[in-house]
Amino acid sequence: MRTPLVMGNWKLNGTKESVATLIKGIESAANAATNVEVAVCPPAIFIEQVANLTADSRIEFGAQDVSTNVAGAFTGETSPVMVKEFGAKYSLVGHSERRQYHNETDAVVAAKFVAIQENGLIPVLCIGETLEERETDKTFAVVETQLKAVVEVAGIAALENSVIAYEPVWAIGTGKVATSEQAQEVHAHIRSWLKAQSEVVAEKVQILYGGSVKANSAKELFAQADIDGGLVGGAALIIEEFVGIIEGAK
Length: 250
Ligand code: PGA
What we know:
Elements lengths: L4 E5 L6 H17 L4 E5 L5 H7 L5 E5 L16 H6 L4 E4 L2 H6 L4 H13 L3 E6 L3 H5 L3 H16 L8 E4 L13 H16 L3 H6 L1 E5 L4 H8 L6 E4 L6 H10 L2
Parallel strand pairs: 1-2, 1-8, 2-3, 3-4, 4-5, 5-6, 6-7, 7-8
Helix pairs in contact: 1-11, 5-7, 7-8, 10-11
Bound molecules: 2-phosphoglycolic acid.
The site of 2-phosphoglycolic acid has 13 residues, from strand 8.
């Protein structure tokens, strides 16, 4: 059995005050949900604050993105080594907003995946199709291409110690959540694609659904056989919503 994981992706949001309020607001629900893993991915500048605030709780944290480089003349970047030093467990990689606004190719995503693992963090690999790709029946081909790019560089065994987040681009930040059937269909496809290469990886890897998850849609999504939790954007900034999503994963 895979333990469900509920992960908040705060994106470019927060103040010192709101970060403290949010962590305090979700802490008791996270501590009580002993069969659910809970994590948040704040903007890099809040990582130390989150590390301090979560030190005595079950809440884990991660970066939203890291550099492929560990140190050097790379202005504006965040090193996976630095993120690890502050106690992070995860880093997202290949979020559709990184792919779209920062031109991150599959090759860059694969290099980042390797850098994240090499420096002791767990990569949360985000994949998913656009609306146009879904409407032209390319969903499976798109997720396979995105997975293959990483497997070719990192090797299939590397995925055993990773998390995959299926996030249809048309559902991100749009309020249009995929139906549980639509999501399960793709999750099952991802798992069978992995299984063809490694049964161990397919059994072990948590595949999260992301895209407009809310407290009222979480339970049904997470009840699907191949959905092992959620990567949550907007609703992760609202205490009652995120707590409801944690409850939905119990
Ligand atoms: P959303 O974002 O929940 O606001 O759709 C999810 C994500 O981008 O990870």
